[in-house]
From TrEMBL:
Pfam families: Epimerase (PF01370). PANTHER family: DTDP-D-GLUCOSE 4,6-DEHYDRATASE-RELATED. Residues 3-227 form the NAD-dependent epimerase/dehydratase domain. InterPro entries: Epimerase_deHydtase (IPR001509), NAD(P)-bd_dom_sf (IPR036291). It comes from the Bacteria. Belongs to the NAD(P)-dependent epimerase/dehydratase family. Gene3D superfamilies: NAD(P)-binding Rossmann-like Domain. Transmembrane segments: none annotated. This is UDP-glucose 4-epimerase. Signal peptide: none annotated. It comes from Candidatus Magnetobacterium bavaricum.
Length: 316
């Protein structure tokens, strides 16, 4: 089976391609430049832009399954407007799906985001049927892409599978999780000991395993699945476990959440504070029951792998 991974040299793509090759899939990929070639990949296609103008016809020849990871991603303090996100995440995805249908591709797996459901859960975790509540241009562009994919699937023979992960962590992680690793490694105190929230995360090894499970499983066709490690952590729990994985003492102190809110407002970092103290959980029961999927790695295993990579990267 020939699988095309868009964004193959990204954080998730490099993990996914390695495991697929180990499982004897023929892997092709797209990336924006030959910055870093990936060994044993059958073919690399250079696409400077993954928007609605890409000529996918020669790239999709003999492709059985597409795993669409490439995206204009959400970054804190980013000034990109909705047009920039829609160009790649919505219009680019729709264009790829139509080209895939025309080329006879059987299935397209789309990596969306739990942010299409919202930024916070209050009493119960998100499930696949929860109302959508995209709160920023990135999430909205992903939600619009999902809707376009289902419309195309209903009009063609292309099967689509949509995965909505929360924050993904693992070796090569960037963004806020990498910043947390740096803070804990340097021994800075985190004012989160009194936080009673719960957050769902997903280790990249678990996400990759779920993606591969969606390649062949007939039940997955034209479905949405929420994905996580299926073990939620409070922010203090995450800090303590990650510190242990780093071989560092956990340094957390109790600061009232109201004061943290105030500090976030004053410093212009309220969204960052909310991600530390609010809850965001997902129910992964559907993918477990319908696809008979179980996370192959525990949270502690995922955190240890991430910490080991960070230490090696930090010392190199």
């Amino acid at each position: 089976m020939v699988v095309l991974i868009t964004g193959i040299n990204g954080f998730i793509g490099r993990h996914l391609s390695r495991i697929l090759i180990e499982r004897d899939y023929v892997v092709q990929g797209t990336m924006r430049s030959h910055v870093e070639l990936i060994s044993d990949v059958s073919k690399i296609h250079i696409t400077e832009d993954i928007g609605p103008t890409v000529n996918w016809k020669p790239i999709l020849k003999n492709i059985d399954v597409i795993i669409h990871l490439a995206a204009h991603v959400h970054v804190m303090k980013q000034t990109s407007n909705n047009t920039a996100y829609r160009h790649v995440n919505t219009l680019g995805t729709e264009h790829l799906a139509r080209a895939a249908a025309a080329a006879g591709v059987k299935r397209m797996i789309y990596l969306s985001t739990i942010k299409v459901n919202g930024e916070e859960t209050i009493h119960t975790p998100f499930v696949e049927d929860s109302p959508t509540s995209a709160e920023d241009p990135y999430a909205l562009s992903k939600l619009e892409a999902e809707r376009s994919l289902f419309q195309i699937a209903s009009q063609t023979g292309l099967e689509v599978v949509i995965l909505r992960p929360p924050l993904v962590y693992g070796a090569y992680v960037k963004g806020n999780f990498y910043k947390l690793l740096k803070l804990l490694h340097t021994g800075l105190v985190l004012p989160v000991a009194s936080t009673k929230n719960k957050r769902s995360l997903v280790y990249v090894g678990n996400l990759v395993d779920a993606i591969i499970n969606c390649i062949m499983h007939s039940t997955a066709a034209n479905k949405i699945y929420l994905i996580s490690d299926c073990e939620d952590l409070s922010t203090p729990e995450l800090a303590i476990r990650l510190s242990a994985a780093l071989g560092k003492p956990a340094r957390v102190i109790a600061v009232p959440t109201a004061l943290l809110h105030l500090l976030g407002t004053v410093t212009g970092r309220l969204n960052t504070i909310k991600r530390l103290i609010n809850s965001l959980t997902v129910d992964c029961s559907k993918i477990r029951s319908e696809l008979d999927w179980t996370p192959p790695f525990t949270v502690n295993q995922g955190l240890k792998d991430t910490a080991d990579w960070f230490i090696n990267d930090h010392n190199s």
